[in-house]
Write a structure and sequence with these properties.
Layout lengths: L1 E3 L5 H8 L8 E4 L4 E3 L1 E3 L6 E4 L6 E3 L4 E5 L10 E5 L4 E4 L1 E5 L3 E5 L5 E5 L3 E5 L15 E4 L4 E3 L1 E5 L3 E6 L3 E6 L4 E5 L10 E5 L4 E4 L1 E5 L2 E6 L3 E6 L3 E6 L4 E3 L4 E5 L4 E5 L4 E9 L10 E7 L2 E5 L10 E6 L5 E8 L9 E10 L2
Antiparallel strand pairs: 1-27, 2-3, 2-7, 4-5, 5-6, 7-25, 8-9, 8-13, 10-11, 11-12, 13-19, 14-15, 14-19, 16-17, 17-18, 20-21, 20-25, 22-23, 23-24, 26-34, 27-34, 28-33, 29-32, 29-34, 30-31, 30-33
């Protein structure tokens, strides 16, 4: 039996796997484990987690599902560049803007150069409350919140110049009256990782690595950058890290049913969102059981219709096939069924 899929964003699922909490760092792994404790980036090419009253544990980035670090003093950004490929990079100053590049000075003094064609927006006052701009808007947003729509002729450190059908050519003082310049709409991110840092940046990365306390972030639009581990607020898998497996529909399972999926050894982890529909009375618990190549590897706790969607996460490295079945307790006369609402597979590196 097949139903239309109810899609739950990956970011929401990751937050359910590692709920933000101000008192401890949380590391969620692709094998379903959750480790709480102080996170250190000092290990070469990996993380070290120091759980309270337990030995330290080393975590490879390839095993990471999400990381949330104990709340730090976040710093409001002075300038920010939004990229069409996803991500917002914060800085202290915009040093250059022309038809070829945008140059941003980071809080640590380093410089990041962006190809202007990959820049969606420059915020000169990102901390200010302003009018939300439509995705299709091109032009200047003023500090007062007004929108001046028009083709962007030029932007430099002093002024932004646009050509409007109604008002002709207009110039705006970047230092005094401009809140933001929007060149074009932002596209859909294909990042494998999303890294947030204390300066308000959101890095959309194709690759991450750790070396002696520093996180190296590689991206298509922002090139290669390094941030200190002490500035990392969170890391999670991005949209480009996983792909759907079961097409565009959810899958219903009755007790004893089993669904088979071919993996072909292409993946390293599975993220299954499962639930018991609310139309069933909550007096016959059921559990979902996942197997890789015929061996059981993960199962949920007994669930009923009063429980919300659950994220079942497990490692599938090298697996050729995956099956999911539903087991139910209690008498068969009490009807129950389960739903696989979503299946996302994390690709092997």
């Amino acid at each position: 039996m097949r139903y239309r899929r109810t899609t739950i964003p990956l970011s929401m699922l990751l937050l359910s796997a590692a709920v933000q909490h101000a008192c401890a760092d949380k590391v969620s792994l692709v094998n379903g484990r959750l480790i709480e404790g102080k996170v250190s980036f000092d290990a070469k090419e990996g993380l070290v987690v120091l759980p309270k009253n337990l030995p330290s544990q080393r975590v490879e980035l390839s095993d990471l599902l999400s990381l949330s670090v104990e709340t730090r003093d976040l710093k409001p950004p002075r300038r920010q560049v939004t990229l069409v490929t996803g991500g917002r990079i914060s800085g202290d100053d915009i040093l250059a803007v022309n038809d070829r590049e945008v140059r941003l000075k980071r809080p640590d003094g380093s410089l990041v150069n962006f190809n202007t064609s990959l820049v969606s927006r420059i915020d000169y006052r990102p901390a200010d409350d302003g009018v939300a701009t439509p995705e299709s808007f091109v032009g200047v947003q003023l500090a007062a919140g007004d929108l001046a729509e028009g083709e962007i002729i030029s932007v430099d450190q002093k002024e932004a110049k646009i050509s409007s059908v109604l008002f002709g050519i207009q110039s705006f003082d970047v230092q005094k009256s401009v809140r933001a310049v929007q060149f074009r709409a932002a596209g859909v991110s294909s990042a494998r990782y999303i890294v947030r840092t204390i300066d308000g940046s959101e890095w959309h990365a194709t690759k991450l690595s750790i070396n002696n306390g520093r996180l190296t972030i590689e991206s298509d639009a922002a090139g290669r950058a390094e941030v200190g581990g002490e500035s990392v607020v969170s890391i999670e898998l991005g949209p480009g890290a996983a792909e759907p497996l079961a097409g565009g529909q959810s899958i219903a399972l009755r007790p004893g049913d089993r669904r088979e999926f071919s993996l072909g050894g292409k993946y390293r982890a599975a993220l299954l969102t499962v639930s018991i529909p609310r139309r069933y009375v909550p007096n016959r618990p059921a559990r979902f059981v996942a197997s890789i190549d015929g061996k059981d590897v993960a199962r949920t706790e007994p669930l009923t219709s009063i429980d919300g969607p659950v994220l079942l996460t497990f490692t599938v490295r090298g697996g050729q096939s995956m099956s999911v079945r539903l087991e139910a307790d209690g008498p068969a006369r009490i009807g129950v069924a389960g739903m696989i609402d979503d299946i996302k597979m994390v690709r092997a590196d």
